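Q: Structure tokens for this one, please.
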Amino acid sequence: MQPDYLVVSGADKRFGAATVLRDLSLSVAQGEFVSLLGPSGCGKTTLLRCIAGLLHPDRGRITVGGRDITALAAHQRNVGVVFQNYALFPHLTVAENIAFGLRARGISKAEAGPRVAEALALVRMEVHGDKPVTALSGGQQQRVAVARALVVRPSLLLLDEPFSALDRKLRETMQVELKQLLREVGITAIFVTHDQEEALVVSDRVAVMNAGQIEQLTDPVTLYHAPASLYVLDFVGQSTKLSGKVLSSSDGMIEVQTAFGVLRAPASFMPGSSVAVAVRPEAMVLAPEADAALNTLRGQISDISFLGSRTQIHLNAPAEGEDRVILELSRLPAGLATGQEVSFGFRVTDTMAFLA
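A: Here is the predicted structure, written as tokens:
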């Protein structure tokens, strides 16, 4: 695998007084699927459009396979794009939509026919080639948009929130299908989304963006279990976050005073430092047995929320404070009720700490 197939180096992009990309750099391996994840306004779509050639960075360089494409027009880059609204032509059939990019490149009808058929088969739409795109469901239109982007055999595929118009169940199905399809084709892909679960499902790596820069770029498992900052922790997944003061620090372990009690975390911060200590809800257990490897605290149940496959328990601190704890259990123990005080615990190794 070529480690630096797509390389964005030191990219800046401004719109008037607003700086949307700020000295941003990104390297993507050949055949890798990388998601750009972040809230509206963080710069992810601007970065995608710069790679596509729909915008040009004010500073920086973009290369694909060692070829500098920074100054090239969009049609000279051999980059496929799937837009949020699919941008299909309603007056054309499915096959004609897929063939459009080939014809624009001057490929003859005789040569385009087999390639369109191959693309239709790739997205399992063989029987729909002669239908108007207006007769298709949202999921089928999304497949056509992907096929149209792939039929030109691009060096890079860019996808700008392609599932946002689909209902949740169909969106989840299409996420898995797209991931399998792109692995089968072996194409390098950049995927823009604001949906954290979507990014975790489809990606080899996820780039979390914040104010025009990449806050963290890593695989989904590391991103969830070892976020590099409070920003990433808050944006990716749910967590309990407790504020506190460091009481002691020794051998890579700190003790922190919180409103729920004293807990330990693997970190090295100076005593007296203000910190936020976090843990994922599913890492917690109720009424834990005594174990030196656990942080064990107490709290009062303020709410119990049934969510189908899991139940969330919300706890208030016994002392004054605004912090709240959220546990997630697959099954609710009998007799548990709001107002009850309970003990809970989580492994010290599952505990994260950040300077507040």
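A few notes: Residues 168-185 form the longest helix (18 residues). The first strand starts at residue 6 and ends at 15.
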